[in-house]
Amino acid sequence: MSDPSQTPVPGNWFVDPVFLGVPGVRSDEEVLAWQVDALCAQTDPEAFFPEKGGSTREAKRICESCEVRSECLDYALENDERFGIWGGLSERERRRLRREAG
């Protein structure tokens, strides 16, 4: 039996932290790279998709301190996201924003 401490390290031992989704590490070359730094990715996703009439307070509180809030909102507006809290705004608030901008 060979000694495991003597096993050579494979050439592909490194795993890109962006691939793993490590917060604070992202590549601007990737379109959705901002999602790695999104605070919602590190919390309970149910808070961001409350049932009809449910509270959005917790999700919006988290969004307030998120460093990628504007990227998130831009994504939601560009992709016509109709459900959930994106960039700190509810579906209704995003619809109102689109109407006012249009």
Total number of distinct structural domains: 1
Largest sheet: none
Q: What is the overall shape?
A: globular
The total count of strands amounts to 0
The residue fraction in helices comes out at 25-40%
Strand content: under 5%
Distance between the terminal alpha carbons, to the nearest Å?
72 Å
Overall SS class: mainly alpha
Radius of gyration: 19 Å
Summarize the structure.
The protein has four helices and no strands. With 102 residues, the protein is mainly α.
Descriptive notes:
By secondary structure, the chain is mainly α. It has one domain (15-101). 32% of the residues lie in helices and 0% in strands. It contains four helices and no strands. It has helices spanning 17-20, 57-64, 69-78, 91-101. The radius of gyration is 19 Å and the shape is globular. The model has no long low-confidence stretch (mean pLDDT 81).
Please write out the topology.
Layout: H1 17-20, H2 57-64, H3 69-78, H4 91-101
Question: Keyphrases for this structure?
Answer:
single chain; 102 residues; mainly alpha; 0% strand; globular
